[in-house]
Amino acid sequence: MSLKKSRVIACIGTIILAFIFHFAYEMLPNFLFSIFFPVNESVWEHMKMLYSSIVFYGIIDYFLNKKYNIGYNNFFMNLFVCSVSSIIIYLAIFLPLYYSIGESMFISIGVMIITFIIVYVLSYFILSLDDKDYNFLWVILIIFGYVIFTYLTYNPIKTQLFFDTHHEVYGIKK
User: Fold this and answer.
1) Residue 10: closest CA among 2, 42, 157
2) How far apart are CA 24 and CA 50, in angstroms?
3) Distance (Å, rounded) from C-alpha 14 to C-alpha 2?
4) What is the CA angle 84-85-89, rounded to 5?
5) Could you state, in order of their start, the residue ranges of all structural domains in the chain?
């Protein structure tokens, strides 16, 4: 299997995980799940879904790449850059549509799929780089991303980005 093919499979796997992760906290509401999965329908909580889908699929991806002897570099840098980029790309595409058209499940899902496609094209190029792989730094940054998500889940900023319009709450539904 080639690196290109593994990126296509990773994109599909990440999309599947995102759909599962969307409902994970609702099915098993607990502190651990609140760290990794969206706790409400706010735009911000869905960014946690994108981030976690990429990071969690990265674990699967690591073992698949090893099994099929797919050569790559910068694995943890790839996970961090792609997970953070997914948030930036999604918001850059989604927010103008959200503020002009309003809420639409089809737009949300479509933008998510487009975001993952862009991210896995980026992933291909990152994994192809000959740069040094500073694993420790990238793992710390991935964990720091979850620290930020956890803090903002329990202390959401009172802006529209953090507001769940379905349940009219910020943060965890009571």
Assistant:
1) 2
2) 13
3) 18
4) 130
5) 3-170
